[in-house]
Amino acid sequence: MSAIWLAVGGMIIFTLGYKYYSKFIAEKIYRLDPNFKTPAHQYKDGVDFVPTNKFVLWGHHFTSVAGAAPIVGPAIAVYWGWLPAILWVLLGTVFAAGVHDFGTLVLSVRNKGQSVGTLADKLIGQRAKILFLFIILLLVLMVNAVFAWVIANLFISFPASVLSVFIQIPLAIWIGYSVYKRKGNMLLPSIVALAVMYLAAVVASGVPALQIDLVRYFGGEGASVLFGLDATSMAFFVWIIVLMIYVYIASTLPVWKLLQPRDYINSHQLIVGLGLLYLGMLFTNPEITAPVSNSSADTSWFPLLFITIACGAISGFHGLVASGTSSKQLNKETDARFVGYLGAVGEGALALVAIIAVITFFPSTAEFSATYSGFAAASGEGLGVFIQGAGVLASGLGIPASVAATIVSVIVVSFAATTLDSSVRLMRYIIAELGTEYNIKPLTKTHVATTVAVVSSACLTLIPEGPNGFGSGGYLLWPLFGTSNQLLAGISLLLISIWLKRQGRNYWPAFIPMAFLMFMTLYAMILQVLTQWAPWAEQSDWLLFSFGAIVLVFALWILFTAFSAIFKSDKDRIEKSA
């Protein structure tokens, strides 16, 4: 079967979802008001609250939520077959992710740009707010560890991509200064910046001297460097330190100086990347060699599929970005549909092409099955297979596969770096909020909160445990990242449902995906915590068990509190009407 049919069918579904379903949600459910004064105008400070053009904000929002997750998750999930993965991406994007991302953005805008964690206080109660903030704190900590791990490993695997990624930083600062201070246009400079980045990638692919290969600098694979660390581990350690220094600086700068222009550049990377892959697909006309379903899988797709593909179907982290940074930059409330729902559609399109790149990469079903021999093997190989498969698709446009792979890795790293930057910024907000809640004044200071965020993230990333040895913290946390991420999405949809219900509106478009997601996620988390990671399990893992047990207990507590609050409000309303 030709993969083109999957691509065309998927894009038609996404287009119909945005054109009709998001319009219904905007007009009938969220009831957007073009005259509503958004927090970006009400609290304009030039740092976090900055009214922003909807196209620029969409670029920031999308690239902040995308990262590598809508690639890694789908690339792993095809282990169970391409049909379940495709269906969850399409239906999840249209009916769950779009409603969730759009809804958290509107909910935050209607409440002074507050985060979903803070809004839990208003909608459920003080206790739920604290619990929710701790769940969010654990999630962003895991996001930081996972994405730092991904970036460092991509730098090691594709050293030709490093130059382009670092060139982007001064270019973005230049664009931010030109636009903000001189009131210039961001479109042309960002296209020029993108051209410079890709030129650097092409040149570096053919000139080894321009490839920043730390493994080679430290003596090559297997070479002993320092304190028993080999060259690869030492390179990983250095990259993590460099990344943490970068995100410390980036997450404390005003959004217009680096975050917005870099994200706008990355939004064009999305267009270029998707264009390369989808157009390349038309010329290569690849055949699907992966199985429709895998009846011999060593783990069941139910319910693990729905947590393995988080970003790309629905993701709680999107709600953190929407309510944490995007809501503070929304120029008009009516822009929320474009930024929130279309941002989810963009991520769904990325997840769709990630699936296609993987399921068409192998010459035969036998070779696919040999690589995807088990779920653990799929988890380790997924991202690398995607980059190689994407290179093959792009080669249909006449681009050498090695150059195409470098460009794809630049795109993936750029997205992951944006997510890491936004996640550290969000973690700073949460730490400061907890500091205010518990009257710990040092934590309310920007640089103290950022230091706590960066140091804890680095320590978690560098945990010397697991199959990958030193620096495998991010790898180990991936299973829990997906579960916690979906749990957060479910709780956010619950908050949206409560808000809509209290407004006297139709809350079923948010409540139905919430109920589905909560069931699947809690089921998966209970299975993982009690049967896979627990001390009494055959393959126990103290790190995953500890984090997982805490998140599970907090989530169940929040659910109990939420439904108690709903029941109490209904009872009070009945008593008052009587």
UniProtKB/TrEMBL annotation:
InterPro entries in UniProt: CstA, CstA_N
First and last residue of the signal peptide: none
Keywords per UniProt: Cell membrane, Membrane, Transmembrane, Transmembrane helix
Transmembrane domains' residue ranges: 6-21, 62-80, 86-109, 130-152, 158-180, 187-207, 227-249, 270-288, 300-321, 341-362, 399-420, 475-500, 507-530, 542-567
Keyword Isomerase set for record: no
Pfam short name (any one): CstA
Membrane topology, from the record: Multi-pass membrane protein
CstA N-terminal domain mapped to chain residues: 2-363, 381-524
Record has Transmembrane as a keyword: yes
Subcellular location, record wording: Cell membrane
Family: Belongs to the peptide transporter carbon starvation (CstA) (TC 2.A.114) family.
Protein name in the entry: Carbon starvation protein A
Lineage: Bacteria, Bacillati, Bacillota, Bacilli, Bacillales
